[in-house]
# Entry
Amino acid sequence: MGPWEQIDARVRARVRDAAATWWDEATAGPFERERFLAAFSGAGRRLGRECVAEPLRGPAAEGLGVQARPWAELGRIGLLLSMAARVPEPQHLAIVDETYRTGDLSEKQAVLRALCVLPHPARLLGVAAEGARANAMAVVEAITCDNPYPARFFPADAFNQLVMKALFNALPLGGIVGLSTRLDADLIRMARDYGRERRAAGRPISADLAWLEGETAAS
# Structure
C-alpha cells in the first residue's frame, strides 16, 4: 500500500462516531476547499497528539518519518494526499502553499513533512524554502531533520544554508538526510570559517562542526 492507503487505514482504525464521519467527509467525494481547511485545522481535536507507534511501510513512504510523531500530523499528511489526488495540479499547489502560510506551528510541520510524498514535489520548493527560513525551530526542524526533501530538491546554496542553520541552532547533522551526498567545497569552507570564528571567540566546537570541518570536498 502507498502512503495514502496506509494513513487512511490507520486513521479509520483509530476514529469512531463523529471523528469517523469527519474523516469520511474530509477525504471522500468532491473536494471542497473550506471543508478541507477546516478539517486540516481541526485534526488536533479529532486525532489527538499522542504519538504514532509504527512507521509506514514501503518505498513509496520513504521520507515520511511519522513514527513518534503526533497522530494529528499523520492525519494532516493524509488530508494533503487526499486533496492532491482530487484536484488539478495548480489548485493542489496553491492549497499546499495556503495551508503552510496560514497554519500554526504544528500545521506547518505537517505540510513540510508531507512535501516529499505529494505530487509534483519540485514545484513545492518555495514552501520548503519558507520552512528553512523560519524563525521557529520546530518548523525549521521539520524540513531539516529526517526529511529527504532538501537533499533531493534544494539547490546547492539553499542546502548549504540549511546545514549551517542546523549548526547554528544545534540541530543534529545526523538527521539531515543525504548530507554526505551533498557535501561540496562551499559548505566545507563555510563550516571551517564558522569553526575559526568560534575558536577565536573561545567558544566550544560541537562534534558535528568538527566532523564537517574535517570532511574533504566532494568531487
Summary: The two ends are 38 Å apart (CA to CA).
